[in-house]
Amino acid sequence: MSGSAERVPKLALADYRRYMLAALLAAPLALPALPQNGEIVALDPVTGPGVEAVVRGVVAPHPDGGVVSAFASDFGSLAVAGSETMTVRRSSDLGDAVWTTVIDTSAPGILGIPRGLAPRAGGGVAVLSSGDPPEPERVDLFGADGTLLWTARIDDVDAPVRTNFVAFAGPDQVAVAALASPGGSSAPYRVSVRFLDVATGVESARYEVADATDDELGLATMDGDAVLSWSGATGLEVARVAPDGTEVFRTPTAVVASIGEPLIAVLATDQRISIVTETRAAGLDPAGTLLYETDLPAPPLHTQAVAVSPTDFATLHGCCWVSRIGADGSALWTHLSDGVGDEYSGVAPAPGDEVLVQAYPASTDRLAYEWLGAGGAEVARFDLPDLGSVLDQVSPPAVDARGNIWTVSREVLIGFAFPDVAYVTKIAAGVDRATPGCAQPFPNSTGVAGRLAAIGSADVERDNLTLVADDLPPGQFTLFLNARNAGLIPGVGGSQAVLCLDGQINRYVGPGEIRRASPAGRASLQLSLAATPEGVGATSILAGETWHFQAWHRDPGAVGGSHMSASIAVTFL
Predict the structure, then answer these.
(1) Is 8 exposed, middle or buried (0-12, 13-18, 19+ CB in 10 A)?
(2) 485-539 pLDDT, tens per residue?
(3) What gap in Å lies between CA 322 and CA 355, rounded to an integer?
(4) pLDDT tens-digit profile of 329-338?
(5) Angle at 260 between CA 258 and CA 266, to 5 degrees
(6) For 59, 121, 386, 544, which has the most beta carbons within 10 A of its beta carbon?
């Protein structure tokens, strides 16, 4: 990141008072309420060839920042298994597109319904896509620039194959869980973890169990190994497998004694393996020792589970319950939605030992997000606003390392047609952390004055604060500024704007930091507190410091061709 600085002269107080009085008489001040608990800070539209009738999507945080998303488009009936195209997109931490790759999947035997994503540090991402047998499943590996490096078909000559998980196993292998059914829809089933060479996509090793009794299959990775779970004679069994296909351990008997009960998740951290079904769960240590087997909290029919700490997981069950299961298998807490009639549709871990829940509020088509803290108490909630059209999520939520929410969205179904646009949506979590500074007495060309908020956390260690400028002229370049001191400098640059900063004024002009206002008149910037522009270089913001922020923007319809937002001050913790 680079920065630049300039010093501005101070204006006599009497001159400023005269300026403000004239401006206020011309345009009475009106400041809309600022957002609370969260705000959409990036709504990146994906349009063009291959983005029609989006029907399903997946999204995952990228280790290098931002996210990777994949979604399917279908020109025909939603009942068909295959998709005409699959679009894969890498988005930056700011929500901008880094690359987009569209794969034509209309040829016979090619499917494009994404089921899993595996991004890795340094660039690449593996995408698992599939459909109904007998069409082959596939894994596509994309490079750091979005180039499709290879495609591997996951099929067997003697049986249809279904896959449901993909991950990197160590630096050189991609692991895929596969279930073959030689007898059609009856046992025995053949389950396996297949290791594909990262360089070529060729299968280099396989671990296989030929006598599975049901079509339940789950896979996770642990320290480069694969952890596979399947239905044995008395219940779910588990094996840990090295990337060369050798068995690290296999449980001698079932760890979850249930027959025919759907396997919800296999979760693995460096300390714990968790096997979760609709009603029961088991925990194992990394060596395969069974630590517990337990009934899950009522009501039954648990549908999703995610690891939320090295030993704990959270599970979604019933219409609107979330439970956190501790290291010994006991329920630490169970939360029932506070909104009467709300239906939970997704759960994800969040920083600060919190759990994020995606909900459909009663009697509305819009989504809401709830953050659950210690004891399962709701610490924050964000209801997706009405944007003129309702956003419908086609992917479960993903939470990045800073605590931002990402989803793949589409506009609501109208009649029998889907709009030909998808959105990679970023939501900054948290309330506005700013103290208002000076306001703009003259409106910009939209008829109102631009405003500014700081959404997220003021905690320096969390490093999750986003500047959000609203009521800007759509499509205009926006430059965010900071300073350690407040100021009052009217008529800056020959415009009607008041510069509300003083002393050394610094500009965010690093890669991607010069923003453009959206069609809704919004521009946002995720700050990197350890690389804050100051002078000719950068500095780290420290706890206890107060910084002032403002946004400058082009405005062809305003005096001088530019304008500025109101200013804010943030005291960091």
Answers:
(1) middle
(2) 999 999 988 999 999 999 999 999 998 899 999 888 989 999 999 999 999 899 9
(3) 9
(4) 999 999 998 7
(5) 70
(6) 59
Q: What tokens does 97 get?
A: 């597109």
Determine which helix (DSSP H) or strand (DSSP E) holds 16, and give its type and residue range: helix 13-26
With beta carbons less than 8 A apart as the criterion, state whether 117 and 140 touch.
no
Highest mean pLDDT among 90-104, 290-304, 375-389: 290-304
Tell me the one-letter amino acid at 500. Answer: C
CB 5 within 8 A of CB 534: yes
Strands 225-231 and 236-241, by their bridges, are: antiparallel
- Is residue 329 within 8 A of residue 281, CB to CB? The reply is yes
DSSP for 467-523?
A: EEEESPPTT-EEEEEEESEEEEEETGGGSSPEEEEESSEEE--STTTSEE--TTS-E
For residue 330, the tally of other CB atoms under 10 A from its CB is: 11
What is the dihedral angle through the alpha carbons of 480, 557, 423, 465, rounded to the nearest 10 degrees?
20
Give CA–CA dist 556/257, Å, rounded: 70
Residue 379 carries which side chain, given as an amino acid letter? V
Do residues 547 and 570 make contact, with C-beta atoms less than 8 angstroms apart? yes
